[in-house]
Amino acid sequence: MTIIIGVITVFIGRKTEIRILEREYERDGSSFVILYGRRRIGKTTLIKQFMQGKDSLYFLSTEEEEGQNLQYFQSLSFDKTGLEILSSGNKLEWQSIFDLLTKGQGKTIIAIDEYPYLVMSSPGFSTKLQRIWDEMLKNRNVMLILCGSLIGMMYSETLDYSSPLYGRRTAQINLKQIPYSDFADFFPEKSDEDLLTIYAVTGGVPRYIELFQPGKDFIENITDNVLKKGSYLYEEPIFLLNRQFRETRTYFSILKTIAEGSHKSSEISSRLNMKQPSIGYYMNGLMDMDLVEREVPVTEKNPEKSKKGLYRIKDNFSQFWFRFVYPFRSYLEMENTTPAIEKIRTSFIDSHLSFVYERVCQEALKEMTGAGFFGNRISRIGRWWNLKEEIDIVGVDRDNVPVIFGECKYRQEPMGIDTLRELQRKASTITETTDRIFVLFSRKGFSKELQNYSQRNKNVFLFDFFKRII
After folding, report:
1. What is the mean pLDDT of the chain?
2. pLDDT one-digit tens code per residue, 244-286
3. Which of 262, 276, 322, 392 is the most exposed place for a label (fewest CB within 10 A)?
4. H helices within 349-416, ranges in order?
5. Are residues 232 and 302 located together in one domain of the fold?
6. Is residue 390 a contact partner of residue 384, using CB atoms and an 8 Å limit?
7. Is 437 helix (H, G, I), strand (E, B) or coil?
8. Phi-psi group of 213: left, alpha or beta (phi > 0 → left; psi -120 to 50 → alpha; rest → beta)
9. Does one domain contain both 187 and 329?
């Protein structure tokens, strides 16, 4: 994402994705990159940032007829090259334009954004592009980027085995939300609590983050951008589903049901009066959009086949919207924001923010283990539960033995040693190993007794918010 601070343009996050694009740019000969992800996630910004200072052409497809897209593509090509043959007086085909664009010696980048629109206007377009690639572009010094927000179509038209373009790509990027570890760069003056509060609503979606003005308090930003009728995010989940799926109402009902507390497939199908096998189809679509995740206890040896799977809304904004906006739509339609604001003031922390804190703690621990903080033996990190109790964070080793046990508390008071004792008890019920590591995250620090205990026991790690206490 790009933000403006004074007159300095700052691009935040996306280091891994930029590295992939630069690697493909440096590749000898041709490269073919597929870039996809949900709307507002920053795909166009990423492409334009990468293309700065390079010989490139950016083309945004529209929902118009193929001939109009072709005419626009030719016009952009004329502006780029100045070749008279590309002027509007001549009618050229796609192959001829690509030919004229890529005859130079240096590498040329051609980025086609919202590629699915081209396919919708011309169902055989992927076959045309396949021939252009095979007969011409693959043998030239060109980097072709196909980008799109309609995830299902991007997969079927570029990545699926049945696609004409299958096997041509040299790299693919499924662009996700910006991680919380980069979030502080957006609001450098904010405290940890303020950052997490904003993140609990916007998640890592760049466009949402841009809307939250640092000079306004949290409720003002929520009111202006979410609660006011006609505001940018007032109907965002509805808009997202409408753009992505045909059966919008079914997907909407599933999200609403999960947000209300039904997490098992059987519960969701029962409440919606749907056959349970059909739920999986809709869930796959929601998971492809990164809106929903299927979670199983981290100790499960075969997660895909586990019957303990629970569906949860992964997207912070969607969870917030279904909990604090949708139930008050009747009031909001009459421009009465008071009931929604009161609900946010009284239950935002306990019913939403505390759960986001758990997920962020889990991500922080994953980053630490990835960096070798606990050695190199941890293979997976996630939640654990059975019929009676649960543990916020458990890390298992390569032999599927639980090693790390963590607890996250977003409370107003310091965490006491009783929390550690309870965590130790739970850990003893799921593993016999004595080689255990305990990691505790707390919003308001720790009692003196717990700090002293941690100093004496090197297998207990304390994190005040996300900062380790030595």
Report:
1. 93
2. 998 899 999 999 999 999 999 999 999 999 988 889 999 999 9
3. 276
4. 354-370
5. yes
6. yes
7. strand
8. beta
9. yes
- Tell me, what CATH number does 275's domain have? 1.10.10.10
Residues written for the chain: 470
The residues, any chain, with a CB within 8 Å of residue 352's CB and separated by 6 or more, are 200, 319, 320, 323, 324
The structural domain count of the chain equals 3
Residue 213 sits in the same domain as residue 166: no
**Cα separation of 417 and 406, whole Å?**
13
Q: In which order are the strands placed within the sheet that holds 378-385?
A: 378-385, 390-397, 402-409, 437-442, 460-464, 467-469
Residue ranges making up the domain that contains 103: 13-174
Q: Does residue 161 lie in a domain region?
A: yes
Give the residue carrying structure tokens 């405290």: 191
Tokens of 375: 């050695």
Instruction: Read off the pLDDT band of 104 (50, 70, 90).
Output: confident
Q: Are residues 382 and 421 in the same domain?
A: yes
Give the three-state DSSP class for 36.
Answer: strand
Q: Is residue 47 a part of any domain in this protein?
A: yes
Please state the rounded mean pLDDT for residues 81-106: 92
pLDDT in tens, 388-400: 999 999 999 999 9
Helix (H) or strand (E) holding 11: strand 8-11
Is 1 within 8 Å of 12 (Cβ atoms)? yes
pLDDT in tens, 132-162: 999 999 999 999 999 999 999 999 999 999 9
Whether residues 97 and 226 share a domain: the answer is no
